[in-house]
Amino acid sequence: MIVQEQEAIDKAVEAIAGDMGALWITLAAILVFFMQAGFTLLEIGFTRSKNSGNIIMKNVMDLAVGSVMFWAVGYAIMYGSDLVGGGFFRSSPSDQGYFFFSADDWYNLFFQTVFCATAATIVSGAIAGRTKFSTYLIFSAILTTLIYPISGSWYWPFDDDAWLNTAGFVDFAGSSVVHAVGGAAALVAAILVGPRIGKYVDGKAQAIPGHNMAFGALGVFILWLGWFGFNGGSQLAWGGDDTIGATSVIVNTNLAAAIGAIAALFFTWARYGKADISMTLNGALAGLVGITAGCGSVNAWGALAIGLVCGIVVVLSIEFIDKKLKIDDPVGAISVHGVCGFLGTVLIGLFALDGGLFYGGSGKLLWVQTYGSLAYIVWAAVASFVVLFILKKTIGLRVSEQEEVDGLDMHEHGVEAYPEHISQDK
């Protein structure tokens, strides 16, 4: 009788723990969903007012198209039980496959869907102000259906069939799986689309200021908030040790963002003689992206070190890409997500409490982190190039010169986001 009662109690406790975990993942997914608003405000604030409506439409469609395509196809490719092409991607039987329907796992589908949409929307800001809306929609659909899910299947199913998981690769919440993939796609897109009119004159980069730093700052605060769900939710459970794990991840995330902003602030202050607003905001984002891979593997000191490095590197990277490579990225997405996504993943090899070089590791983890992150970057860059090159040669990537000068809002959507008398871009 006592044994039966204990078994009943154990089952009840297990059920409660499972429900608490599902609730935490759902709430975290809602926070990540809200990040789409942050990306929208950030991109609007850092660019010209005449393209604000176009940015709104791209971010809304990233979420809308990504939600449908990931549900219909992407989830099965990323998390399916059957390997295809020697493990290059996955597929699934009908009970958990295409057009996903598994009532016991809806919360995981939702959580992974908003991550997929995040990867897609990184591209939006890097090619703002000169890209055809129709072309962007097609690329966003392909990225959320194939490009992101295929590479995601290499690690996040956390089984022996995921080759990077087997290799010992660590990416807790997606510095490489999400951010470096989006950053690499953004790099290729920005190169193929080309710079905005007037960005480079006689080979020299010209500043094209964003029209609303308040929007940009609000966007960063929303992203900062949403990142607690992005990283904390990736614990994928709540209760007992998982509660400690998730909350330590949240503290590490906050510390890295804070020191990233501080590092960018003082570095630009010393470099330019002014405390640069946009670089400071991007410093916070750089810290967030950098710690995303290692937030569950490092302590607070490691989080501070990663955020500090990323906060400085993002400034140098934005300058280098803009002035030396002459690649026009209005919001710094390539540097924030691509460069710092790679850097944050690699730095785990130094700061991880288990296997990090600074904690007695042999250097193996550092090597795995490096080639694992590079695999994501190369895949996203090559796949994006193929898709975008085809689109460029068929329907085109770029709007006409007149449409760019007038603004995409009027030509692509037939409306202006602001009344004409307050627009500063005419």
Outline the structure in words.
The chain has 426 residues and is mainly α. The protein has 14 helices and four strands. The protein has helices at 2-45, 52-79, 106-126, 133-152, 163-167, 175-193, 213-232, 241-272, 277-292, 300-324, 333-351, 364-394, 401-406, 408-413; strands at 82-84, 89-91, 200-201, 204-205. The chain has a two-stranded antiparallel ribbon. Helix 2 (52-79) packs parallel to helix 4, helix 3 crosses helix 4 (133-152) and helix 9 crosses helix 11 (333-351). The model has no long low-confidence stretch (mean pLDDT 93). It is found in: Cell membrane; Membrane. Keywords: Ammonia transport, Membrane, Transmembrane, Transmembrane helix, Transport. It is a multi-pass membrane protein.
Supply Rg.
22 Å
Which descriptor suits the 3D outline? globular
Low-confidence stretches: none
**Largest sheet, if any?**
2 strands, antiparallel
Q: What portion of residues is helical?
A: 55-70%
Helix and strand succession? HHEEHHHHEEHHHHHHHH
Q: Quaternary state, please?
A: single chain
Secondary structure layout:
Blueprint: H1 2-45, H2 52-79, E1 82-84, E2 89-91, H3 106-126, H4 133-152, H5 163-167, H6 175-193, E3 200-201, E4 204-205, H7 213-232, H8 241-272, H9 277-292, H10 300-324, H11 333-351, H12 364-394, H13 401-406, H14 408-413
Antiparallel strand pairs: 1-2, 3-4
